[in-house]
Amino acid sequence: MTVAVEPQADDLVLSVREVKKHYPIREGALQRVVGHVRAVDGVSFDIRRGETVGLVGESGCGKTTLGRVIAALADPTDGGVHYNMDGMMSRIDRLEGKAARTFRRNCQMVFQDSFASLNPRHLVIDLVGRPLKVYNEAVSADLVERVVELLEQVGLGRQHLYRYPHQFSGGQRQRISIARALALNPEIIVLDEPTSALDVSVQAQILNLLNDLQEERNLAYLFITHDLSVVRHMADRLVVMYLGKVAEAGETQAIFDSPHHPYTRELMSAKPDLEADANVEVRGLEGNVPDPARPPRGCRFHTRCELATPACGWEVDDVVRWLEDAPGMFEHLVGVERKTDFAATLAFDSEEAAGLLSMAVRSEQVPEAMRTAMRRLSLDGDKVEIEFEEVGEIESTVRGDGRVAACVLMPEEVASWKNM
Amino acid sequence: MTDVPHSRVDAEGMTADTAFRVRMRRLFGVLQGLASNPATVIGLVIIALMLAMAIFAPWILEPNSPDPYQMPRDWGAVRKPPGTPGHLLGTTNEGGDVLYGVIWGSRTSLQLSLMVVGSTMIVGTIIGSVAGLVGGWVDEVLMRIVDVFLSIPELIFALAIAAVLGPSFGNIIFALAVVLWVKYARIMRAQVLQIKQNDYVDAARVIGDSRVNIYLRDILPNAVTPVTVQATLDMGNVVLIGATLSFIGLSEAGIAEWGVLVSEGQAGIASGRWWASTFPGLMIFLWALSFNLVGDGLRDALDPRTEGR
Lengths: 420, 309
Ligand SMILES: Nc1ncnc2c1ncn2[C@@H]1O[C@H](COP(=O)(O)OP(=O)(O)OP(=O)(O)O)[C@@H](O)[C@H]1O
Ligand code: SF4
Ligand SMILES: [Mg+2]
Known about the structure:
Helix content of chain A: 25-40%
Distance between the termini of chain B: 17 Å
Low-confidence stretches of chain B: 1-15
Order of helices and strands of chain B: HHHHHHHHHHHH
Bound molecules: adenosine-5'-triphosphate, iron/sulfur cluster, magnesium ion
Oligomer: heterodimer
Largest interface: A-B, 52 and 36 residues
Structural class of chain A: alpha+beta
Number of helices of chain A: 13
Order of helices and strands of chain A: EEEHEEHEHHHEHEHEEHHHEEHHEEEEH
Strand order of the largest sheet of chain A: 6-7-8-3-9-10-16-15
Shape of chain A: elongated
Strand content of chain B: under 5%
Helix content of chain B: over 70%
Number of helices of chain B: 12
Distance between the termini of chain A: 32 Å
Shape of chain B: globular
Largest sheet of chain B: none
Low-confidence stretches of chain A: 1-7, 273-283
């Protein structure tokens, strides 16, 4: 549903289709499942040969989880990742034998923590030569030469063969990881924040290296990062994630030119612009990321969206959240009797407190969109009954030029919002 | 700091390195770490002396025939004090040469240590690894068993088993092995669970290496340190527990074993014949102490926070 332009099959490397990954939350002595963290909750996009897809979003939005599903380190709860094997798209978690090995060789991963991802007891020759040994590609002297070749491609050399990972700098270690990922000549590499632990100058060197390697080998990258300024120069296309879902996807340049989702726009304005005056205050994203075990209804971003409309999925939780932040109100709330996520009766410890709430919720103190979305608000003694318009999940919609966004607003409305 | 792939320091004659030389250097580094700790060095020297004593026992003192592990009996010289010609450390009530017991007893103790520690380490490592790797109900069942074992004090548990099986040195070894494997299972399981989380294990999965290889190349080598330390400490501790069991009569009478000698000699202490139990007692103490000193030293020398990095 998210693919606008149906790509040529032989052009595709991977196709991510409605992938979900939920982690059970267990509690108590019996370890009963009391809920699920919906780390990835229905994500679709494609990766084509030789291109870089940037996967961005705040911490905890499910980037690493999705990367691990794509690299077959974790099985999806639902949906699947399809790999193009000689023109046939096959789900990677159903591959067996030779086909599974073919996929394995062709999809590699580089991790964020360069120290943790290299076995501290292995020498560089063992680390980089290991994939070659696993597939019986080279032995003894030949293996050494192949490893040297790989090291030279990432800017290291023969003199580094017999060293331990701790003898290198962070940037050099990441080069070793990249050399290891290159060893099997893969089609795609999942790069999970490969530079976020590095100094800015080192970061630039590694990014250049990745760019050069991509050109030489026609590699596809899934570049995971929380830093939009990094992907701006790296990625051909972007997938912006929010709480396990795709907020927006499309060509990088087009998204930077005109974001179709308020979240993307906020992310872009939150990024510190290095070219701009360092003293200019940078507006950050406000509010907390909601719990991925109980994502907001309607649009997941509505709790933080400054453009939210009455149709964005206002719910009982929004009132409770508002109460939590309102000084001296939350203590008086004694119970919430939910009928649905959108309708409930709030019980207070006094008629006065109930009255205060029903007044407040009608006033300027709460967002106008929330007030408008409220279908019913009745005060009955120390109880307040509230009911909102029921709104389904705001799904991604395809907008021309291969762009996808999950927002009820028109791009012009997002574009004209505030000074940026 | 910038990332300079070819710094001059890097190129400094390092091309002559081989994997073998680098690994030897690392080993040498650990040995240096051990050597820099005086207590460890003392422990190592004592262990070396006792091992030499065990190995060269037949050349130091003629083996008793037919069974060299039985105390010789010189009925013509009972209860002689130390310094008696031919009986440097004196004799026991039955005319057993205390020096013979001390020297041949080191063989008995070494045998006990090696058999108990060797078997418990192997069994514990396998069971702990299976629990940590397989997880689920297998882990659940194995760990319940371990918990039951750990809830009974070591000495009392071993005593009960040895008592049921009847007094013999072999039964003491068996009882100790039955009791002590759980420690290794527990250490190993915790290690496996922790190491499994490391990105380098995922990195090995991504390149498609087999589970067996990942266990042997990534998990096991990174888990051996605490197991090795525990094994070293246990080399000393089992002799202590074994001697306690022997002391209360769970071993055969008359064998050249330090615990048995202490037990058989203690009755004479009140009458001033201190030597029959003091010398073997001193040996037990030195054996346990020196392995503990080395175990502690190993823990420091192998600590990943100080090793390399
Ligand atoms: N193994 C797991 N078990 C339970 N919950 C998990 C697990 N792994 C991740 N999560 C949860 O899933 C959500 C997404 O985590 P993930 O690591 O994918 O986020 P991320 O976008 O990579 O964040 P970051 O930028 O911090 O790396 C988080 O709420 C996290 O707590
Ligand atoms: S749908 Fe669009 S406007 Fe509504 S809350 Fe979500 S992002 Fe904001
Ligand atoms: Mg992450």
